[in-house]
Structures are given as C-alpha cells and as structure tokens.
C-alpha cells in the first residue's frame, strides 16, 4: 500500500515536472519570437512627433530665459489670438503640441525627399532651409513673429541653431532608420 501511494505521488510529481517543462519551453519559444519591426515610414512619423515636441520645448525654454523673442506659441497661438492668456504656460503647451503635430509633416517631407542621403550635412542643410522658409517665406502669416530684419541677433542665432539641431535630429534619425530598415529587409530576403 505504501509503495502504491509513493508510486502515485512520484507519478504526480513527474507529471507536474513535465507540465513545468512544457511551460518553460513555451516561454522560451515566445522569447525567441521576433517582433515585426516598424516600417521606416512609421518610424519617420514617430521621429517627427518626438522631434517637434522636444525641440519646441527647448525653444520655449530659450524664450523664457530671454535667448529668443519667439517661441512655439508665437507661431501657433499668438499669431492668431491676441488675448491675455496667450502669454502664459497654456499657450506654450498648445504651441509645443501644435509644433509636434506639424513636425510630422516636416518629417514626411524629409522622408520623401532626403531619406536616402547619408551623413549630417543633408540634415543640417534641411534645418537651415526650414528656418529660411519659416522666417522669410511664411513670416507674413505669423503676425506675432517679427521679420528677420527686426529681430535681435540673439533671437536669430538661437532660432537658427534650434532649427539646425531640429533638422539634424529629424534628418539623421530618419535616414539612419531608413538605411537600417533597408539592410534588415535585404538580409531577410537574402536569407530566404
């Protein structure tokens, strides 16, 4: 009788160990599965959003510490509304979010035109060109932003540097991710 009970208990232990081993193996299989990577276009959209939020936030900081006389709110909010609240935190927050959303379009523009270019120079030139378009070509639309001739040198230098950094962030990230995505795709197709 004792042997039967011990044999039955051993059988249960073996069954439990077998179940644990199966669970362990299924977890290992799940760990070995690779997630399908995001497409280069999806990463470009995400990069645009993050870049717009990041660099407009830094632009707001430069505005508050008087390095620049313009901020994201100057373009997005103050050019359309002239009320008391547009000088506060809420206007800056709306401006930062607005620039983040508009930056998706900028990233898609870079993706469409310059994604295959390698190196920093295309990205830097993209940032300078973007600064020129915003401050020269589109300046009449933004009534709260003075013309470049009327800006002080601190504002010109600060905004130009921010646009260069923004262009570098957007451009280099997109071109790097695109080239990495292309290499992964060619390895995947070559390996099959």
Strand-helix topology:
Layout: H1 2-32, H2 40-64, H3 72-76, H4 89-114, H5 121-137, H6 153-191
Helix pairs in contact: 2-4, 2-6, 4-6, 5-6
InterPro entries: YqhR
Keywords: Membrane, Transmembrane, Transmembrane helix
Protein name: YqhR family membrane protein
Overview in brief:
The chain has 192 residues and is an all-alpha fold. The chain has helices at 2-32, 40-64, 72-76, 89-114, 121-137, 153-191.
Give a verbal description of the structure:
By secondary structure, the chain is mainly α. The model has no long low-confidence stretch (mean pLDDT 83). The longest helix has 39 residues. It is elongated. It is 74% helix and 0% strand. It contains 6 helices and no strands. InterPro entries: YqhR. Pfam families: YqhR.
Throw out a few tags for this protein.
single chain; 192 residues; mainly alpha; elongated; membrane; transmembrane helix; YqhR family membrane protein; transmembrane; YqhR
């Amino acid at each position: 009788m004792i042997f039967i009970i011990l044999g039955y208990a051993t059988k249960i232990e073996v069954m439990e160990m077998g179940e644990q081993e199966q669970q362990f193996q299924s977890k290992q299989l799940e760990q070995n599965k690779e997630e399908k990577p995001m497409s280069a276009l999806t990463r470009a959209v995400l990069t645009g959003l993050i870049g717009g939020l990041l660099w407009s936030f830094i632009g707001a900081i430069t505005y508050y510490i008087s390095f620049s006389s313009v901020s994201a709110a100057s373009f997005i909010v103050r050019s359309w509304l002239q009320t008391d609240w547009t000088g506060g935190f809420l206007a800056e927050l709306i401006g930062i979010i607005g620039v983040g959303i508009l930056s998706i379009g900028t990233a898609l523009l870079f993706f469409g035109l310059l994604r295959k270019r390698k190196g920093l120079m295309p990205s830097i030139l993209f940032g300078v060109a973007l600064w020129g378009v915003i401050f020269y070509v589109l300046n009449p639309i933004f009534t709260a932003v003075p013309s470049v001739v009327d800006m002080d040198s601190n504002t010109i230098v600060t905004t130009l540097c921010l646009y260069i950094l923004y262009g570098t962030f957007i451009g280099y990230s997109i071109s790097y991710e695109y080239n990495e995505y292309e290499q992964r795709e060619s390895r995947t197709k070559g390996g099959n």
